[in-house]
Design brief:
Shape: elongated
Oligomer: single chain
Largest sheet: 5 strands, mixed
CATH superfamily of the largest domain: Periplasmic binding protein-like II
Number of helices: 13
CATH topology of the largest domain: D-Maltodextrin-Binding Protein, domain 2
Strand order of the largest sheet: 2-1-3-12-4
Radius of gyration: 25 Å
Number of domains: 2
Strand content: 15-25%
Distance between the termini: 76 Å
Structural class: alpha/beta
CATH architecture of the largest domain: 3-Layer(aba) Sandwich
Helix content: 40-55%
CATH class of the largest domain: Alpha Beta
Order of helices and strands: HEHEHEHEEEHHEHEHEHEEEHHHH
């Protein structure tokens, strides 16, 4: 009888242990299933448009879809986000339109195996000077110290295209200042360390900083005649406008040239995750617009219009098709 009791007790302990292990495994599996999907977003240096846009976009996505947890990876800008994407160091990255074009078309490098999640906003380029500055045209800035972005910024590509389109060279014709951080640019203008700062976009932080200062701002875009020359030499650029009132003291619309900035996706990004990201950006669009002037441009319609279907990620296309916006 004692032997039978011991045997039954062992069997009971084995069953209990097995049930506890099964419960523990089930608990771990359930927790794993409910854990949000982590997504790493590459932005840029503080004080620039990408860092501002990226922070707000992250908060909108995370608030809209709790199954996602997007986190910021600060970088030096577009030129660093591209290799980070290709190496899998980040999942999605903010890339200025000209830098994206060079990568996706394989200009000066191998073709990047990257796809587009969505457009961000248009980037019409121009210089900003202090309102009390005597300079009115780009030509007036020749031989003067001017800041043309950080070393890894895609805005420098746009700036060089604009200048070469009118027969100028940033290194030869100006005292070019390369910034360590985007936030240095407006400070250098206000402290008169440089005469002008090159930038681009709607609500670009560098322009806002100068325009909102006590001295105010004056903007120097290419003239209408210069725009024609630039587009003739660089037909990949598009004519773009900055609406009146975008910046403090800006009374009239400003015409210039540029390209749309994009959010690119690493090659092996899970299609379901990209689908959920696309859906969260769309469903959170009202929140994004309330936070940023640029947010009103980050739409599905603009994405479909500006980006060839072959360059869109399959996860984004799936969501667009569900809405009946793509075949």
């Amino acid at each position: 009888m004692q032997h039978l009791f011991i045997s039954s007790r062992k069997t009971y302990l084995i069953i209990i242990t097995a049930l506890l292990c099964a419960a523990l495994l089930w608990s771990k599996s359930t927790r794993a299933e409910t854990q949000p999907t982590k997504v790493l977003l590459g932005t840029a240096t503080k004080g620039g448009g990408f860092q501002l846009f990226g922070q707000n976009l992250i908060e909108v996505i995370n608030a809209t879809d709790t199954s996602l947890k997007v986190e910021e990876m600060p970088s030096r800008g577009s030129k660093q986000n591209l290799p980070f994407l290709e190496q899998g160091k980040i999942d999605i990255g903010l890339v200025e339109g000209n830098a994206a074009r060079q990568a996706l078309d394989g200009i000066g490098r191998a073709v990047a195996n990257l796809k587009v999640l969505t457009v961000m906003y248009p980037n019409p380029g121009m210089f900003v000077v202090r309102a009390d500055s005597p300079y009115k045209r780009i030509d007036d800035l020749k031989s003067k110290p001017v800041a043309i972005g950080t070393r890894a910024s895609g805005l420098r590509i746009l700036g060089n295209d604009v200048l070469s389109g009118i027969g100028l060279n940033a290194e030869r014709d100006f005292q070019q200042v390369i910034l360590n951080k985007a936030a240095e640019g407006p400070r250098f203008v206000l402290e008169k360390k440089v005469e002008a700062l090159w930038g681009a976009g709607i609500g670009w932080p560098g322009f806002v900083k100068v325009a909102d200062s006590a001295v105010g701002a004056h903007f120097i875009p290419p003239s209408s005649a210069e725009i024609k020359l630039i587009l003739a030499k660089h037909p990949h650029l598009k004519k773009m406008s900055i609406p009146a009132g975008t910046y403090k003291g800006q009374q009239a619309q400003i015409d210039s040239v540029g390209l749309w900035s994009l959010i690119l996706v690493r090659p092996d990004m899970d299609a379901d995750t990209v689908y959920r990201l696309t859906r969260a950006i769309h469903q959170g669009s009202t929140m994004l617009v309330k936070r940023l002037k640029q947010g009103r441009y980050t739409t599905i319609e603009n994405t479909i219009y500006q980006v060839p279907a072959t360059r869109l990620h399959a996860g984004a296309v799936r969501y667009f098709r569900e809405l009946g916006l793509m075949k």
